[in-house]
Amino acid sequence: MTVESTSARKPRRSGAKRTSAKRRAADQPELVQLLTPEGERVEHPEYSLDPTPEELRALYRDMVLSRRFDGEATTLQRQGELGLWASLLGQEAAQIGSGRALQDDDYVFPTYREHGVAWCRGVDPVNLLGMFRGVNHGGWDPNSNNFHLYTIVIGSQTLHATGYAMGVAKDGADTAVLAYFGDGASSQGDVAEAFTFAAVYNAPVVFFCQNNQWAISEPTERQTRVPLYQRAQGYGFPGVRVDGNDVLACLAVTKAALERARTGQGPMLIEAFTYRMGAHTTSDDPTRYRRAEERELWETKDPILRLRTHLTAQGLADDAFFAELEEESDALAKRVRDAVRAMPDPDDMALFEHIYADGHPLVDEERAQFAEYQASFASAEEGN
Prior knowledge:
By secondary structure, the chain is of the alpha/beta class. It is 47% helix and 10% strand. The strands form three sheets. It has a five-stranded parallel β-sheet with strand order 3-4-5-9-8, with helices on both faces. Its cofactor is thiamine diphosphate.
């Protein structure tokens, strides 16, 4: 089944522009959907999925725990324990659905918001917080989970993903690569260049765009004249728009796209049409550019509530399941809180390690100068 997507976007502009925005919203293209906002299961002619009750409960658990961890991280930042945090609130279905479509040998290149995908790849949530606390530059070994370090530079990871995909193709590996980026990053030249190379070299890469409709304070309608998934046509590979708040649709579409890549059919673009329920990061105030009515509308499309409604209506989960999951969520939150506050400060001199394989005289000079600078504080304290 396909349904017309709707947009609640009403930026604070003139009345004429608002009318134009409403008209564009009404003209939005259809998207792939397998679970309606009311929790009803529907079918799609191209993308099918037949999950077991255990698999449905597992997807629900993934989304609930990802949201709880994300909320805890936001709270820690507000308490001064983290320098910054980019919330995934509202995008759990897009991330869990696509993340669970991956095979072990597949490789992921995330941005800085893919906390749910990291969960699916087995990265300890605590490890995601070290960089945002300022105690490390990543916190995990990318090759242990085939999950690259977070990329702060907007859009550059699509080039990394394409290059990696070209490499595994030359190696003859049965591997697909999944690259995440947002609607704002789609305006970056790096993304266009990645599309070009992926198409020309038939690279086994899937580009997964989480269109949460706001590039910080800039709405998508100011960045593009066509739906983002249609851009793929100009590069010679297919694109599809999926309901980004439908975990089943995201799982089915991503699984099909990854299999397509593995079998030598080249790249594909997935646009997950979703919504960023919170701020862009904790340094942002979305009330300055978004209306409360917009968020209220999207709350009715909540991805977790949608699946819970389905589970309950079909008798696939009982009160005991939800109670046990709540206890697990509380335990996860406590573990994250305790672990973050116990993180040791980094070694000041580690900044100069792993720069050059054989060392460098300028780095040696800078190391010595910094060591002297640090020692001056100890001398000042002794003097007092």
